[in-house]
Backbone:
């Protein structure tokens, strides 16, 4: 029954991908057909959609090669897979068109449009379908966690935090005498770890998570060996989090039957540094050109609603501790510094709040229009100028003052400011108004240790969501 459901889900995914590709191709052909109407000088292409039939096998082959029908991915890993498939499928089709000299019968504009449209439509449609398949039980996998401890709870929250994986935790198994709970976050705890095989059969378990970092190594080796052929897969949680995981690789040493985790310093590689800088300049210049008019309008509205300049400049700490002038739209009254001194001197609770969060919940210094700019994060837009000047990055740790670094950052200062600060970052897309300053520093540190270009792209996409939903600072 289990294998039947998985095969059915795979067939549905494959057929749905075919339908999605057909719809995207049809839309690309429609856009190509109306282009000469909008741009008279653009050449007319008279062939119908039938010439594109061979595009689909190319796409589906690349999707299958990347594991789209055999592996499970977190949401953003699946988006990455689909973008990668879009790039290589477009490249492969254009190469075939060029080498086969069939440019007169195939519209290259349509090929490029299919790739561009797929960047948005393919993830949206495919992930929506997968959510429905998970809810229907076709892609759901029952999981048993061995270890009702802190590591087990970490594993439970990690699996629940990625619903795209389709994992359903149905129980814990732990025979440790210290384990006294009968239920953890709604999941029942069972006691007989030595009866794990019986639980696998009785509860129809697909996958097993081992979260027993304190157990004897020989015992863990024997447990993994026993379960490897009884469950579809075995996941091992080593019991620590917060270390760099992006780009971490497993190194195998076959002679001694051992392995090691190779943890890389991604931003120490010159190629990665130049890649990030090129990405910042290209996207920053594009954003500046697109947003030039909105920037001017916001500037006029700021000056019209409260006396003072539109741009607020403050010295912040940049890479390697170098100071620079950080630009923001002014969101406060001109006497904001005097107001905060009066508040801290008169109100003990306000002083405690300031020391913990470095801001006030209902900040009297902020103008009404400034509050809107902060909620939408639009006050950060002038920092695009800092990006183009090479003082900031699009994504990075939050730019802070020297005082904040000395008060709060402690051992994290050298790590966080070994890179350029960013307009947006992991903190800004992680519930920024509801997080403590220490948690903010932890997120910035995690970002620096785990940087890769895809992480920057994900944070930028999430930032758009934050802006649209007005989840910025308050």
Residues:
């Amino acid at each position: 029954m289990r294998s039947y459901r998985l095969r059915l889900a795979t067939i549905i995914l494959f057929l749905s991908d075919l339908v999605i590709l057909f719809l995207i191709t049809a839309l690309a052909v429609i856009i190509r057909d109306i282009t000469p109407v909008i741009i008279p000088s653009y050449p007319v292409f008279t062939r119908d959609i039938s010439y594109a039939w061979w595009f689909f096998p190319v796409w589906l082959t690349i999707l299958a090669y990347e594991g789209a029908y055999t592996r499970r991915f977190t949401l953003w890993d699946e988006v990455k897979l689909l973008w990668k498939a879009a790039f290589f499928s477009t490249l492969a089709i254009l190469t075939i068109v060029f080498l086969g000299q069939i440019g007169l019968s195939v519209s290259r504009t349509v090929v490029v449009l299919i790739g561009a449209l797929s960047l948005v439509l393919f993830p949206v449609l495919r992930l929506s379908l997968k959510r429905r398949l998970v809810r229907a039980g076709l892609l759901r996998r029952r999981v048993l966690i061995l270890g009702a401890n802190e590591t087990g709870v970490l594993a439970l929250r990690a699996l629940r935090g990625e619903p795209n994986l389709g994992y359903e935790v149905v129980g814990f198994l732990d025979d440790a005498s210290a384990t006294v709970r009968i239920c953890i976050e709604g999941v029942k705890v069972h006691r007989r770890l030595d009866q794990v095989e019986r639980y696998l059969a009785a509860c129809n378990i697909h996958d097993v998570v081992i979260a027993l970092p304190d157990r004897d190594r020989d015992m863990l080796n024997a447990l993994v060996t026993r379960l490897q052929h009884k469950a579809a897969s075995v996941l091992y949680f080593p019991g620590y989090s917060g270390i760099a995981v992006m780009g971490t690789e497993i190194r195998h040493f076959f002679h001694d039957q051992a392995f090691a985790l190779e943890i890389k310093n991604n931003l120490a590689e010159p190629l990665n540094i130049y890649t990030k800088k090129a990405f910042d300049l290209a996207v920053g210049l594009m954003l500046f050109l697109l947003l030039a008019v909105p920037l001017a309008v916001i500037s006029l509205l700021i000056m019209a609603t409260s006396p003072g300049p539109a741009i607020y400049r403050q010295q912040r700490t940049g890479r390697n501790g170098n100071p620079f002038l950080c630009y923001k739209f002014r969101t406060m009254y001109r006497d904001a510094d005097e107001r905060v001194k009066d508040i801290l001197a008169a109100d003990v609770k306000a002083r405690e709040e300031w020391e913990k969060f470095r801001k006030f919940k209902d900040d009297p210094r902020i103008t009404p229009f400034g509050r809107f700019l902060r909620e939408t994060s639009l006050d950060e837009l002038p920092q695009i100028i800092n990006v183009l000047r090479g003082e900031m990055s699009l994504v990075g740790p939050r730019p802070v003052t020297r005082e904040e670094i000395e008060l709060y950052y402690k051992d994290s200062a050298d790590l966080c400011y070994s890179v350029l600060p960013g307009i947006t970052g992991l903190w800004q897309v992680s519930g920024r108004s509801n997080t403590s300053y220490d948690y903010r520093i932890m997120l910035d540190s995690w970002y620096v240790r785990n940087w890769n270009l895809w992480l920057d792209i994900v944070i930028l996409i999430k930032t758009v969501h934050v802006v649209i939903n007005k989840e910025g600072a308050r």
About this structure: Residues 270-331+366-468 form one domain. The CA atoms of residues 276 and 405 lie 24 Å apart. The first strand starts at residue 141 and ends at 146.
